[in-house]
Amino acid sequence: MDERTSERNMTSREHALSLLRSFLSPFFQTPALTLWIVATMLAALAVPARAQPTASARVSADSVTVGERFTLTLEARHADSLRALFPDPARGDTLLGDLVVIARTDVTTESEGGSQRDRARYEVTTFALDTAYVPPLPVRLAGSRDTSLVLSSLASVPVQSLVPEGASGIRDLAPLASFPRPWWFWPTVLLAPLLLAALGYYLWRRRQQADEEPESEGSAPRPPVPPHESAKRRLRKLEQTTDWNAPDERKPFYVELADIARTYLKRRLDVAAPESTTGELMQLLDDQVGRGRMPGNARDQLRRVLEKADQVKFANRRPSAEISKKLLATTREVLGDVEERQRERERQRERERQRRRDDEQQPAARANEPTT
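^ that's the sequence the OP posted. Answer follows.
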């Protein structure tokens, strides 16, 4: 049974080879056609196959110590139509296996005939013992329609111990190093008590003299500067003392500008402006606008000033001198509008009080009129 099956298989193979030779023999009888077939096959072999995307990881040191900084390089090879997205510390990718990421440099790109090679370098350190391992790290390849994922190769770096060889236990503390005292040490020790005593006596005498001075008759405490006048003086001083050509002075300028506006609002409108955020202060000022104590456009202009000041203080922005001067003028205008609104309300209240006094005096005047 097996012999007959083997004979049939052999006969089938011989028959297939015979058919293939009879099919190809006409093509090789013509020399030109033979050369064309050979050239086509060589050209097909010369065309490279479309490479699959790969990723690799390597470290810059053969071995490191605990806490030593070195470089980890991630490399991705892919088609030039894709874009490699490496782990980014800004997105929270601060741990790469046993490595701690300190910083990442910009990604570099090289083209190689239809393919592309991207590299990302990381400044890293490790606190692992014996060996620090880097597991396969994900590298996303973004195309026009979808995103694929490729994993890097496994990497490791030996971690050398900082403990010297032959150490058997914890050593005792090293003795204190002796340093020669400078020549001025003992004179300072001797003169310091005398200087402190002289300073204390001076302060005591000054306080005694202040207590013994009689108060001048008719003297009155100096009245406080009105809020609007104090704000105008501070704005004028800020404008005169600011170096508009120095970008480093932008932050102190905006800190002072915001403090002037917030201090004025606290003193004039009795709102918790200095200790409130810009958003919280705007809610407080919405109530002031609703009660008619502040114009609505003044609130909107002040919001732009304070938001720009927050950007400078917390986001390290550096506005131009022209913008800064314009915002200073806006602040002066806003405070002037608020002050004018408050003075108009005070005049209106005074007119109402005067009208009530006149109404109260009219019955008394009629009662005192002589009767005929």
